[in-house]
Structures are given as C-alpha cells and as structure tokens.
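A.,

Following up on our hallway conversation. Structure tokens first:
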C-alpha cells in the first residue's frame, strides 16, 4: 500500500490559452455537420475542441482567424454565449 494512487484525469488543451488542463475543468465543443455544438456530457464522438471555463479563453479563440479552417466550424456569437452560459450559471 505504499504506492500513491492518484485518480488520473485526462488532460486536454484549451485552444484559447493553449494550456493543458484536467478535462473536467474544460468545456468541450464538437463539430457536427459544420456547426459547433456545446458537448455538455463530453460524450459526442465528433472531433472536439476544449476551452477553459472562462470568457477570456473563448474570446481569444474567437479572434483566431484560422479557427474555422482549423476546426471546421465558426465560433460565432451564439455559440460563445452558449458556452458562457455553461459556466456562468452555476449555483
Ligand atoms: Zn484557456
């Protein structure tokens, strides 16, 4: 029993600040038929991107002009607001 057993949480990179974080601290967006969809359960099979749960990282990604080309969907205002509502409406 000498080994310390840490729960391993998968790490993912936030595409806003490009830092690796625990997956459960990030919000995931998947591309479905060319549209970005917030994946609340992180279970969708589609290709996804991750953001920290703060507006700064999301806004930073919005400013990335190559975003759509790179990830296949547009990070538009509607999606940004949806994302923000997932981490601002807690408690
Ligand atoms: Zn970030």
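Then the amino acids I'd put at each of the 91 positions:
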């Amino acid at each position: 029993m000498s080994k310390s057993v840490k729960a391993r949480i998968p790490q993912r990179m936030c595409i806003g600040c490009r830092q690796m974080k625990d997956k459960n601290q990030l919000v995931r967006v998947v591309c479905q038929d060319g549209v970005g969809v917030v994946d609340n359960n992180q279970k969708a099979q589609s290709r996804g991107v991750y953001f920290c749960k703060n507006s700064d990282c999301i806004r930073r990604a919005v400013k990335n002009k190559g975003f759509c080309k790179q990830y296949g969907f547009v990070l538009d205002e509607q999606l940004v607001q949806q994302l923000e509502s997932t981490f601002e409406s807690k408690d």
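Residues 14 and 51 are 5 Å apart (CA to CA). Curious whether your intuition agrees with the design.

B.
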